Amino acid sequence: MKTVQLVVLDMAGTTVRDQHEVEACFAQAATATGLQASAERILAVQGQAKRFVFELLWWEQLGAHADAALHTQRVDHSYQVFRELLEAHYRTAEVVPTEGCLELLAFLRQQGIRIALTTGFYREVTNLILRRLRWDSGLDAHYQGNGQSIIDLSIASDEVAEGRPAPLMIQQAMHTFGITDPQHVYNVGDTPSDLESGRRAGCAGSFGLTNGTHTHAQLAACPNDGLFASLVAFQQYLEQEVLPKQITTVRREDIS
User: Fold this and answer.
1) Which of 10, 26, 53, 233 has the fewest beta carbons closer than 10 A?
2) What pLDDT band is residue 256 in, cutting at 50, 70 and 90?
3) Is the dihedral of CA 28, 69, 193, 216 positive or negative?
C-alpha cells in the first residue's frame, strides 16, 4: 500500500454543512429567470461548476440548435441571480463545519498529510465561506497554507479549465505539492460528480459521504471506493484500516 500524502475534500456538504441551501438558491434563481429545472435535476448536477450547470440546463430547455447569443444571455441572467442569492446566504446564514470535520483536519495535520479543499463554487463565494469559518488564516495569495494554517490549499472551480466531474482540481492540488502519483491521494465528497472526479484522477480512493446532499442509496449507484456516514467514520477508517498498514509497509521496507 502506498502512503497517503494528500486528502482532497469537497466543501459544501462535505466539510461545510449544507442542508440543501445551495439547491434552494439554485431553484430560486431558476424560477426567477424562467429556467425549468426540477428538484431532482438540480440535485443530480450538484458538485459541478455552477455556471456550467446553468449552461447545461439552458441548452436542455432551449434545445441544442438554439441561438447561441440567446443561450448566453439566459445563462448570464440566471447565473447572476444565483450568485446574488448564494452570496447573500453565506453572508447572513450560519456557516458551520460538518460533523467530525475539524477533528479530521487536525488529525490529518498531525499525520503530515496535506489537505486540499475543492469546490464547485467560484472564488468569491469560496473566500466568503473560508472567512466565515476562519479557514482562510495563513493562506497566501495563491490560497496555499503554511505550517500553522488549518488547510494547505483551496481551489475553486473557476480556477481550472473545467470543473467536476473533470479531475483538474485534484490534479492541480497534486501539482502544487509535487505529487505525481495519484495513488498517494484520497478524494472525499458528497455528490456523484465528486466521486467521478476522483475516479478520473486515478486516486487511490474516491469516497462518498452520505450526510451531505445525497443519500447512501444515491451514492451507492455511483462507482466508489467506500461510503461513510460522516467524516467521523472516514477518520476512523484512516486510523483503523489505512495508516496501520502504511506503518507496516514502511517498516518492512526499512528491514529490506
Assistant:
1) 233
2) very low
3) positive
Supply the pTM of this predicted model.
0.88
Q: Compute φ and ψ for 44, nearest 5 degrees.
A: -65, -25
Tell me the β-bridge partners of 209.
228
Cell 472564488 sits on residue: 123
H helix runs in 93-150, sequence order:
101-110, 123-133
**How many C-beta atoms surround the C-beta of residue 101 within 10 A?**
21
pLDDT in tens, 36-90: 989 889 888 888 888 999 999 999 999 888 899 999 999 999 999 999 999 999 9
DSSP label of 110: H
Residue 69 CB neighbours (<10 A): 8
Other C-beta atoms lying within 10 Å of the C-beta of residue 126: 25
Cβ neighbours for 6, distance < 8 A, ≥ 6 positions apart: 113, 114, 115, 116, 173, 174, 177, 179, 184, 185, 186
